[in-house]
């Protein structure tokens, strides 16, 4: 079932595409939208926010929300490549890889491809549809060997490391949704099948096998979710992780000096004063994967 806000977005998008609303025209306010579609004010606000994120409308001070001006198509030498769904998806992936999922908009994709602002809508219905296509395309890049390893653990390790490599290359993947609402895309199922086939050899039953598959996937997500957060923190603060930590030295010293209350923490932090400590996400991923599989191996021994 299509959410109410999405129906509003689709209708206003149609009015813009068909010229009923031209660049510079006022878009109905949130209260007008709420009355016209008989929805809550929050739903109307979400619809207008979605349109702004897609670059179709813009909020102007003392004016209100208007249809955004179309960005002129840049001149190109020779014939421009034909616009296809694959090109739209690939451009979206490039934007998300470079700037994060929050920077993704249909208008930005059109600008990257050098086409009219509404052109991508001929191939995708909206940002939600596009993100699913992006995820499916990226999961299709998984590098899995043509001949699966014979041992269950080796097969599982290969599959989980392939997932980690994808999330490493495309950090926005970890931002797409909770485990309780899995992505319904074919190529993710292909990756899951690889890991499930290895776990299935242990004979633990359907529920335990699937739970372990989810646990391993959540381990990938749990580490990968910090990749985009790290990039965002650096762009906002203008500091690298090392520079930020250097600025926290005084606060860390205060915490460490409370040795009576937190003796283990104080002792470990004290040892780092000489040896140093580098939080390596790749090493953390490997430690977690090894710990999970060691525990599983001991369980089935």
UniProtKB/TrEMBL annotation:
Entry protein name: GntR family transcriptional regulator
One GO BP annotation of this record: negative regulation of DNA-templated transcription
Keywords: DNA-binding, Pyridoxal phosphate, Transcription, Transcription regulation
A Pfam match: TetR_N
Gene3D superfamilies per UniProt: Homeodomain-like, Tetracycline Repressor, domain 2, Winged helix-like DNA-binding domain superfamily/Winged helix DNA-binding domain
HTH gntR-type domain residues: 2-70
Keyword Disulfide bond assigned: no
Domain of life the protein comes from: Bacteria
Biological source species: Saccharothrix syringae (Nocardiopsis syringae)
């Amino acid at each position: 079932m299509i959410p109410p806000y999405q129906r509003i977005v689709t209708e206003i998008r149609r009015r813009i595409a068909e010229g009923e609303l031209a660049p510079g025209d006022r878009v109905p306010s949130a209260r007008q939208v709420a009355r016209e579609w008989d929805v809550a004010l929050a739903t109307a606000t979400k619809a207008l926010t979605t349109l702004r994120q897609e670059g179709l409308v813009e909020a102007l001070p003392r004016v209100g929300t208007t249809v955004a001006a179309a960005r002129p198509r840049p001149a190109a030498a020779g014939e421009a490549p034909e616009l296809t769904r694959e090109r739209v998806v690939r451009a979206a992936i490039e934007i998300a890889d470079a700037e994060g999922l929050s920077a993704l908009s249909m208008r930005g994709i059109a600008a990257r491809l050098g086409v009219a602002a509404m052109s991508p809508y001929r191939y995708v219905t909206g940002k939600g549809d596009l993100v699913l296509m992006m995820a499916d395309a990226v999961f299709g890049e998984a590098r899995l060997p043509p001949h699966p390893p014979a041992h269950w653990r080796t097969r599982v390790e290969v599959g989980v490391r392939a997932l980690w490599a994808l999330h490493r290359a495309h950090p926005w993947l970890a931002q797409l949704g909770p485990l309780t609402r899995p992505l319904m895309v074919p190529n993710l199922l292909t990756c899951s099948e690889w890991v499930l086939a290895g776990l299935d050899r242990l004979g633990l039953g359907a529920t335990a096998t699937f739970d372990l598959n989810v646990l391993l996937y959540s381990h990938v997500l749990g580490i990968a979710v910090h990749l985009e957060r790290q990039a965002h923190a650096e762009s906002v603060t203008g500091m690298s992780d090392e520079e930020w930590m250097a600025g926290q030295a005084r606060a860390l010293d205060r915490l460490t000096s409370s040795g009576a209350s937190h003796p283990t923490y104080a002792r470990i932090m004290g040892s780092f004063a000489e040896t140093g400590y580098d939080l390596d996400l790749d090493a953390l991923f490997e430690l977690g994967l090894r710990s999970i599989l060691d525990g599983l191996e001991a369980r089935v021994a």
